[in-house]
Specification:
- The structure is a single chain.
- With 555 residues, this protein is an alpha/beta fold.
- It has helices spanning 2-72, 79-84, 248-256, 293-298, 300-303, 359-365; strands spanning 93-102, 107-110, 120-134, 141-154, 160-162, 166-168, 174-176, 180-182, 186-188, 193-196, 200-202, 206-207, 220-224, 230-232, 260-261, 306-309, 312-315, 325-327, 330-335, 338-345, 350-358, 373-377, 386-392, 402-406, 410-413, 424-427, 431-434, 455-458, 460-465, 491-496, 498-503, 522-527, 543-554.
- The protein is globular, with a radius of gyration of 34 Å.
């Protein structure tokens, strides 16, 4: 009996222990599940917050893209247009706040941010604000803001600016001062040496080779780093540090301190703010009855105070203008600054008929354009000759600056802008340089009879060029100014800015070196640093635009 009682007592104690253990386990489990649920809830909240952050960021990127479109049209923005910039739609999220607002008026001065910091331009800062809440988690709102700067950069602040592929592969030594930018790919090389003194940027790739597949030369290609020291593209092992090298992304930044950058480094296109960005040549084309207000704003035909169309002069309102004036030596005679001449162009393989503008006579007439912009266009020859424009006797330009725009090929003959130098530019289908020794009557003779002499040109250029095809080089930047003479041992001194924005539509002859076309001059070419001073800008100088990110804030 006593044994039975003892067994019962032990069983009761065991049961009690088990019950206590189960109770403790239950309490621990409940606590564990509580902690787990809390962690899961916190994790879910954090994930949702991260998603809301990226949604807000996507909204800001959309606003930046729409701002870029507004500026690409050349109209900038109005308050109403800014209000129309709306947020994207994402399931599960709501934009509680979305706004794009300017931060003060436009300003003119040095750019302080972005890849083109240091250049001058017109800027306007804007703030984009986005507050995003989750529809799945209560009281979860993410707030982001980003400050951006719309930058309008006068295009002649670049020593070289190309919209299409830029090729520069000189034979003799060549130095380039001033920034270089291309909206596509850059191809570089040299037979001796090629040196860049400032930034080189490409919205595409940068290659050490020729686009047409031929040899790129074994000469050096050097760019100054952030401390002003030249660093070669050639690596110690004989390879070249370009976009095709595995170390390009980081190696280029280390070697040149950011002075050399491509699309890999998020370099973007810089383009003219035009209603038709895909057709920048519109700026030099004749006015048309169907032109929109935006095109009228962009075309130099409408900007010019003086137009010479098919040999006849007109004012800005379209009224005829008599440019003739009495000859001081013979008052009974009239002097006309405008005439027509012809000569042969071996590259084009045709006779060229030029509307010739004698700049000295135009100045003497007292009827030079008041705003410094002259527009010239000629289309009288049809298919019998190639129509063009030629500027002669341009050593001294109209005071205050002189810009000549034409949809024809343009020839500059002799020294240009060398006396009391003025802000000057030309815009054309293609640019051609004729030396001080050029004679029309010898234009079809052997190259040995067309011997150039030293010539100096001070003018910024916007022109077209031909396109390199397989086995056919277009001549590169070094031959963007075209020649028709034997320049061996003679020097062309050039100070300006070379800008190629379109393909030539009229002067489409392929680049050919040597007889019967031309031989190259000694190139004393350099960027005209006066162009960096807004006070010395050529009349009507166009600008390219960029939207740079300044700073962002996460609340």
């Amino acid at each position: 009996m006593n044994k039975g009682k003892r067994r019962g007592a032990k069983a009761g104690m065991a049961l009690a222990v088990v019950l206590i253990f189960v109770l403790v386990l239950a309490v621990a489990s409940a606590a564990f599940l509580g902690v787990t649920n809390s962690d899961l809830h916190q994790t879910h909240r954090e994930v949702e917050a991260a998603r809301a952050f990226y949604v807000a960021q996507a909204g800001i990127e959309k606003a930046v893209a729409e701002l870029t479109v507004l500026y690409s049209r050349g109209t900038g923005h109005t308050a109403a247009e800014l209000k129309e910039i709306g947020p994207p739609t994402y399931r599960g999220f709501t934009f509680e706040t979305f706004a794009v607002a300017p931060l003060g008026p436009s300003a003119v001065g040095k750019l302080e941010c972005g890849r083109y910091a240091g250049l001058s331009g017109t800027t306007r800062r804007l703030k984009i604000t986005a507050a995003v809440s989750s529809q799945r988690v209560e009281n979860l709102t993410v707030r982001l803001s980003e400050e951006v700067e719309a930058q309008f950069i006068p295009i002649f602040q670049f020593a070289i600016f190309y919209d299409k592929d830029l090729e520069i592969l000189p034979g003799p030594k060549m130095s380039v001062g001033g920034p270089v930018h291309c909206n596509s790919d850059i191809y570089v090389g040299s037979n001796e040496s090629l040196s860049f003194d400032s930034k080189v940027t490409s919205a595409g790739d940068i290659f050490h080779r020729r686009k047409d597949g031929s040899e790129s030369g074994g000469g050096s290609v050097r760019v100054k780093d952030g401390e002003g020291v030249y660093r070669d593209m050639r690596n110690a092992d004989g390879t070249w540090l370009d976009s095709e090298h595995k170390a390009w992304a980081a190696g280029s930044q280390e070697r040149w301190d950011g002075s050399v950058a491509s699309a890999t480094h998020r370099v973007s296109r810089l383009q003219l703010p035009l209603v038709s960005p895909e057709w920048p040549r519109a700026i030099v084309e004749r006015g048309d009855a169907l032109d929109t207000p935006e095109l009228k704003e962009a075309k130099y035909y409408y900007k010019a105070d003086l137009r010479i169309i098919d040999g006849q002069a007109y004012d800005a309102g379209g009224a005829p203008v008599d440019l003739t004036y009495p000859d001081p030596l013979d008052p009974g005679k009239k002097i006309n600054p405008v005439s027509t001449r012809t000569f042969y162009n071996y590259r084009e393989g045709t006779t060229v008929s030029v509307t010739e503008v004698d700049v000295a006579k135009l100045r003497a007439s007292g009827k030079a354009p008041a705003n410094g912009i002259l527009y010239v266009s000629d289309d009288r020859s049809g298919f019998t000759k190639q129509d063009a424009v030629r500027l002669v006797n341009g050593e001294a330009l109209p005071t205050g600056g002189f810009t000549v725009a034409t949809d024809n090929p343009l020839y500059i003959q002799g020294d240009y802008n060398t006396k009391e130098k003025q802000p000057a530019s030309v815009m054309c289908d293609a640019i051609n340089i004729l030396s001080n020794s050029w004679q029309d009557e010898r234009s079809k003779e052997d190259l040995s009879r067309r011997v150039a002499s030293a010539t100096t040109i001070n003018v910024a250029v916007i022109a077209g060029n031909t396109v390199t095809e397989k086995g056919q080089y277009n001549g590169g930047v070094e031959n963007m100014p075209r020649f028709l003479e034997q320049w061996d041992g003679k020097t062309l001194r050039y100070r300006g800015s070379l800008v190629a924005l379109w393909e030539s539509q009229i002067a489409t002859g392929e680049w050919v070196y040597g007889s019967p076309c031309y031989t190259a001059p000694n190139r004393d070419w350099y960027y005209d640093t006066d162009l960096s001073d807004p006070a010395k800008a050529p009349p009507g100088m166009p600008s390219v635009f960029s939207v740079a990110k300044v700073r962002w804030q996460y609340e």
